Amino acid sequence: MNEQPIKKQSFLQGAAILALATAIVKVIGACYKIPLGNIIGDDGYGYFTTAYDIYSVLLTISTAGLPVAMSRMISESQALGNHAQIRQVYRASLYVFLTIGIVGSGGMLLLCRQLAVFMEQPNAWAAIAALAPAVLFVCIISSYRGFFQGQSNMTPTSVSQVFEALCKLFIGLGAAWLVMDRTGDVALAAGGAILGVTIGCIVSALYLGVKHRRAAAYLTARGGAVKPMGVTVRQLLAIAIPITIGAAGLQLINLVDAKIVMAQLKGAVGFTQTEADNLKGIYNFCQTLFNLPAAFIVPITVSIIPSITGYLTVRDNRAALQVEESAVRITALLGLPCGVGLAVVAGPILQMLRGYGAGQLAIGRPILMIFGVAVIFNCLVLLTNAIMQAHGNVTTPLLDMLIGGIVKVVVNYVLVGIPSLNIIGAPIGTLCCYITILSLNLIFMRRMLRGDCPRALRTMAKPLAASLVMGAAAWACAGLLGRLVDSATIVCLGTIALACVVYAVLVVALRIITLEDCMLLPKGEKIAKLLRIR
Predict the structure, then answer these.
(1) What are the DSSP calls for 263-324, one per residue?
(2) What confidence tens digit (pLDDT) does each residue in 106-117 have?
(3) Nearest CA-CA partner of 109 in 194, 35, 172
(4) I need a surface site. Which of 58, 60, 313, 497 has the fewest CB within 10 A?
(5) Cα 4 off chain centre by
(6) What is the pTM of this model?
(7) What are the pLDDT digits (tens) for 63-98?
């Protein structure tokens, strides 16, 4: 028997491992998406994103609630030393995942043309069809990841993410280039690009299957009381369904919103299909950059749920509060400078990554600037949702997200229909959405947790001050370099380098990271000594 003990990690150790994987994945993703946009153009990138919009709805239904439910239930069982129930939770989750995955993949494949027409982009059908099998494999992947994450072991998840990204890069980019070279068909090339995503999911599922088999052998040797399968499934669904409804509801609203944006561009504003496709392609690229910082917050949310749940299970509220405040501090430390940076350096970033001229820049710059502000609120929404879910409140985040989604649809319908704004109204709707959600989350968190509520505003004060100073330095540097050199790449990279140095100095000078934070990291004592943190 291959027994292999589960390597449990602290909250920040797990977050650090996931964040490192996320950084690698995002670098690979940049190597994928930037050349992809140049290969298939803004029209093709719009088809690519449309397929992802539909996929995201099914993906959310498949994976939003169940991994959180698994993580909480497995963490509770582990805190009580009940290894047999850990196996039972995994088996119950797998049955549910497979059912959802089969239905989701089949529906997306069979209705690919109808879905493309519904999204006002008929040529996106090939990309939708190519992505359909990924739904099933992501469901399988999620069952494995929930198993490991519930035991605070983030390494298998991290490695599998890198495998997915590498397949997407080499297979997806190669297929897109080959199709464009042989046929010149943008729609088919977008489908080829997405094929890499599907193959990446298959490879990731195979890797995680091997890791799970070894870990499960270790758990089999240990006992505990097992709840009946029906009871376990009901407990899983009681946690998962509200989370899934909220997340899927927001994704459905986003899907309808994307349709409304296209309809308003063509109807109220009067753009042709080609012009609307081009504008949406620019918007989608800016949206990709907007989603980047949030990807580094997800590791924090994934790590804190089993950590907080474990402490609450053994009634250690003080330790749970410490984890929550550390999570707020790290989220602010990452999210605030990213948001400020995107807003301040929007123009140079778009010039460097996409080579936009004056016309495209006039559209893309304000979109990315607004998205930069929205990044800050989005990151905090993700964290506050996770804290409430770890405390067993899955209904409030659901309602808050649905309310925010409705605000987004209404604002976008009004603003995108104004000719002078058109597509620029869409990121304003996104900003209003996340401001609404965060405001409601903070109100309900204070009521729910009372004296044990993390001091969010106080904790964020120093990171906010550092980010604003960094933003001022970046703005001045970009203006100066822009007058001295003609290269957008030099302006962008030079500005980012200076901003990073300024921010790092301010983080150390203002002592934003505490000794408790350092102790949760690998080799924390050495890090604290190096930074002179006491």
Answers:
(1) HHHHTTS---HHHHHHHHHHHHHHHHHHHHHHHHHHHHHHHHHHHHHHHHHTT-HHHHHHHH
(2) 988 898 888 888
(3) 194
(4) 497
(5) 31
(6) 0.73
(7) 667 777 887 888 888 777 777 888 888 888 888 888
